[in-house]
Amino acid sequence: MSEIAFKLLEIDLTTKTSKVVDVTEDVKIYSAGTGLGNKLLWDRVPQETGSFDPEQILHFGVGPLTGLCGGQCALSFISPLTGWKSGATSGGYFGAEIADAGYNTGILITGKASNPVYIYIYDDQVEIRDASDLWGLNSTKTNARLQEKLYQETGEIFRTAVISAAGENLVRYANIIFDGIHSAGKRGPGAIMGSKNLKAMVVRGTIGATYADHQKVWALQKSYVTNPKNALTSIQYFGKHYGINNWTSTYLSNPSTLGDFKYGSIMTGVKNNHSFWDPICDNYNYNDYMMKYRLWHHACPGCIIGCYVSSFDNNPTLGATVCKHLYDNSGGCSANWMLKTYEEQSVVSAALEELGMDGEELGGVVAWAMDLYEHGIITQEDLGGIDLKWGDLDAALALMKKIAYREDKAPNALADGFRRAEQVFGEESIWYAYEVHGCAMDTQEMRSGTNRFRYTASAQGARKHGEPRDFNSSLTQCSYHAGMLSNSFGSINEGTRQLLNAACGWNLTIKDVEDMYWRFFYFSRAVSHRAGYNVPLGKDDIIPVRAYTETITDKYGTKYMVDEPYWREVEFPDYLENSCKLNRDGSLPKSELERLGLGFVIPELDPSVVR
User: Fold this and answer.
1) What is the spatial distance between Cα 47 and Cα 340, in angstroms, rounded to a whole number?
2) In the Cβ-directed half-sphere of 577, how many Cα atoms lie within 13 Å?
3) Which residues have CB under 8 Å from 222's CB, separation 6+?
4) 117: helix, coil or strand?
5) Do 53 and 202 reside in the same domain of the chain?
6) How many angstroms separate the CA atoms of 120 and 115, rounded?
7) Looking at CB atoms within 10 Å, which of 10, 170, 322, 537 has the fewest?
């Protein structure tokens, strides 16, 4: 069985040229997706490069398993929000379309266009086209105009990746919207596209994916899809809970479901994370909402879960809308802003996609702004005339739009995220900012469960990305497939081994897969360390003061607050050592870097971060 070759399409917007690069040897070492992205960032982005400099790159990563067990497009870039290495993933069919076009490790964007452009890819036909007529359009209109134009031109339906107002105006947590319904939003890839004057990318692939052993791949895929345990898992967890698709509904209004969901003590915050529950949470009955508005469940290629739940609403603010209520664009806002109902949240969710911003980050900064306004730290004048009261939908929507377009003092500051806005609003604002690494807490509150460890230890900034299990993004698989692989193959690593061997023609052992896993994790951290994360060591890994000075209470009277000395001296070092295989101070283990072939990173890192 012959090994397959891996091709990367590289597009230089400055010179308006493209080429196909053979990256087979790198994929064997680092895997594809964000694994290859680490190597590209290390080799291509000089240290001290500014967030929006033309030298920054943006990798739309796919790999040999894209479309087999899920089909995420995994992005790699230096975040304009944190300044560190970052990753963002999107489900849907865009990643699989890239692979079908013959580029089985994705597309690398370099340089900067002199005027607004979009990239056209139809198999081996690659063009950089003028996008002046698209600049300024929201995501839905951009997608619709491109689809209509390209269908008239080719008779084909293209997959699209577009930015909206937030990306054009370099909001540091701007999304990229895929096919009008999916988004990659963590830490600002849309702003990277905007900085390059890249409005959109369209892809149509008719070549199809290539595997070393197609029959073996099909047999493995069939066993995965038809496994009765996987069907049961999909129905039990994702049909019942993730189909409901909102942490606020599932947890806040009924924390007893926590045991059902088997996520441990994970809850979301209310009113800028000042509480775990408020009577308003009982208004969020998602079963009722879905009975009225649900359209369909949508799955990525090769996925049996179908977690994407869209809903239709005809609301007075935006008119007819289609939106999704994923936990990261609903729980980050909803009760955290004190919105009254899911109908109101549906307006916010639709507006998020239209304006092109990450729901968790926006949810955090808007809740913070409401808190600051209530306490007189920012004023109505700062907000451009908005009376920003808790639970006021119209005020929230007005602020969202001002942030996306960078209008007025406070919205413009909020567009840059917590840390930069804190410098504008003053020292008094910092206590109210519920953030780690300058990033908003996502829907899952950190004063319960394991998130106070995972978010603080993440070298990508207060998100699940950046922990060891993020190797999934290197395989372009959703993390929810982990249990499914175990059901079918006995363990995650064994499933990964069999799939990669059949797809690539490799002969990996379990030890090889384990080494690839940890090589990915350490290399990801090394890229961030070189960019400034945790230098000197320990300066970034701190939890917000409110987490250990403010007690919050859930619906049933249970109180939560972090024991900061114990967390800092015992719990967090234990987590770093046992779960992350780092030194107890968070530094990279030099011996492991050398064993895994990463010794070349050591001379470029501060001595404090390698021991």
Assistant:
1) 47
2) 9
3) none
4) strand
5) yes
6) 16
7) 322
- Whether residue 237 sits in one domain with residue 206: no
Summarize pLDDT for 176-200 with one digit per residue, the tens: 999 988 888 889 999 999 999 999 9
Strands 58-61 and 73-78: antiparallel
SS3 55: coil
Give residue-wise pLDDT tens across range 372-425: 999 999 999 999 999 999 999 999 999 999 999 999 999 999 999 999 999 999
Q: Which of 338, 258, 245 is nearest to 290 (CA)?
A: 245
Could you list the residue range(s) of the whole structural domain that residue 317 is in? 227-440
Same domain, 121 and 252: no
Note whether 124 and 242 are same-domain residues. Answer: no
Predicted TM-score (pTM) of this structure: 0.94
Integer Cα distance of 378 and 412 in angstroms: 13
Cross-sheet strand order for the sheet of 159-162: 125-130, 117-122, 198-204, 159-162, 176-178, 182-184
Q: What angle do CA 380, 385, 387 make, to 5 degrees?
A: 60
The percentage of residues in the chain with a pLDDT greater than 70, rounded to a whole number, is 88
- Take residue 479 and report the two structure tokens written for it: 């993390």
Q: What angle (nearest 5°) sits at the alpha carbon of residue 493, between those of residues 487 and 499?
A: 80
